[in-house]
Amino acid sequence: MPLTAKEIQAIIREGVPMAEDIDFRVDEVSAERAVARVPFSSRLVRPGGTLSGPTMMALADAAMYAVILAARGRVEMAVTSNLNINFIQKPQPVDLVAEAILLKLGKRLAFCEVRLTSEGSPDLVAHVTGSYSIPPQTE
Amino acid sequence: MPLTAKEIQAIIREGVPMAEDIDFRVDEVSAERAVARVPFSSRLVRPGGTLSGPTMMALADAAMYAVILAARGRVEMAVTSNLNINFIQKPQPVDLVAEAILLKLGKRLAFCEVRLTSEGSPDLVAHVTGSYSIPPQTE
Amino acid sequence: MPLTAKEIQAIIREGVPMAEDIDFRVDEVSAERAVARVPFSSRLVRPGGTLSGPTMMALADAAMYAVILAARGRVEMAVTSNLNINFIQKPQPVDLVAEAILLKLGKRLAFCEVRLTSEGSPDLVAHVTGSYSIPPQTE
Amino acid sequence: MPLTAKEIQAIIREGVPMAEDIDFRVDEVSAERAVARVPFSSRLVRPGGTLSGPTMMALADAAMYAVILAARGRVEMAVTSNLNINFIQKPQPVDLVAEAILLKLGKRLAFCEVRLTSEGSPDLVAHVTGSYSIPPQTE
């Protein structure tokens, strides 16, 4: 039985302390796609009212992990192998939303793309691609 | 007068809340190079004893910012434009050290390289390149 | 009047010698998307029957340029600023097809994503993101 | 016995047709570093007198392959896994030189960094990082 958005959120927040720090939420998951968010919080804002780059990277990384968990089931030892982010424009002072797409789920590597937007706007705030190294299955 | 390591650490910790969360420290700076660290803390560790990817990305991003501040003086509105990270091997359960090198300081963009290692070991934990967008000087 | 696929192909093949070497073709363009290809040729194949990485990078780069020309008109001096490519699986011995999507057309930078597939298969061969630096308009 | 610069140049030019197209040369190799070049040729120049991006990417990719061959011996089936390039400034109308550094030679992946400069100038033209997937040894 595939993991639910709630279960995936709990796994990631237990496993990655920074996900807890940014109040990481998983809205929905399927085998190819996860939508996650960081609720807007003045605590994460840097001078000029911009959510910090590390917050965006943490959200994108966790959203990639979410879609891999949704597609593969519980693989707690998956680790990011490469992450590339382009910061495109300043986010708005609202929730930051991540849509992670699974581009390819291989045996050893999974590839994802993540689009970060400000809640309620279609414009890209940042665009991320990443690969995750999948440990060999032990069953 | 160039900013000192202490001043740069204070500017970054005030400006980027996640730098505060990871207890970001600046050890030394020059106009071409900054050495910074995240003291080892069980709080930042994910299952399997590994410092999380977002912690490494936050450290690398802040270390790039540190060397730019050292080279250019106080430019609080500089923002990361692109960051690419290769995770090479699991860090040890010790301080994570970042050496950021300024590859090029242009008028509009600065390019940096960051090498992340575990304190006391020469082996790379992760390798990062990034570009920062520099706002036009207003004086 | 927007440039046609044929015109864009000619501009790129005149301007980038390597586009000529790989027999770069533009199939279709709109203001948000370009489809381009490298016809299969044993000349470009490396041992093991795989199209070489540089051929894929040249195709992706030229496809990004094609969509920017389609969206902005003739901007011959646009130059790639950053390109990141993940090689996902070996291409088949058929035409290599690139679908370039314009993620954001800013004043100074354009961001694109490119999906490379083997003709007739939906599976990704490689995934590319890139940014192009747009020179200031002179009219 | 480690491969010589000449042998490595021959292996790459036979294996990667685009390396032949750009007249790829290997100047020197050691187990951690390779220096390679593309001789200046008006044939590779795009409007404005700039060597094209694909030429730089092809050189960087081949230079990474050269240092891996120098360190590991003949591994013809190694393939690029990820390549990230930042274009920093226009090259001069002279030879383009690549210095590839082996950051880490793992069992499955090798990580490299490449600095591209114009012959005779220390300034970076482009900066590349990449990973190569190493096939399992068959002896």
Description:
Four copies of one chain form a homotetramer. Chain A is of the alpha+beta class and 139 residues long. Chain A has one domain (5-133): Roll (Thiol Ester Dehydrase, Chain A), CATH 3.10.129. Chain A is 26% helix and 39% strand. Chain A has three helices and eight strands, in the order H-H-E-E-E-E-H-E-E-E-E. In chain A, the strands form two sheets. In chain A, strands 1-2-6-7-8-5 form a six-stranded antiparallel sheet. In chain A, a hairpin with a 3-residue loop joins strand 1 and strand 2 (33-38). In chain A, helix 1 crosses helix 3. Chain A is globular and about 45 Å long. The two termini of chain A are 16 Å apart. The model of chain A has no long low-confidence stretch (mean pLDDT 91). Chains B and C meet through loops of B and loops of C.
Q: What is the class of chain A in the CATH system?
A: Alpha Beta
Which shape of chain A, going by the Cα principal axes? globular
Unreliable spans of chain A: none
Number of domains of chain A: 1
Oligomer: homotetramer
CATH topology of chain A: Thiol Ester Dehydrase, Chain A
Q: Using the CA coordinates, give the radius of gyration of chain A.
A: 14 Å
**Structural class by sheet pairing and helices of chain A:** alpha+beta
Number of helices of chain A: 3
Please give the CATH architecture of chain A.
Roll
Strand percentage of chain A, roughly?
Answer: 35-45%
Q: CATH superfamily of chain A, please?
A: Hotdog Thioesterase
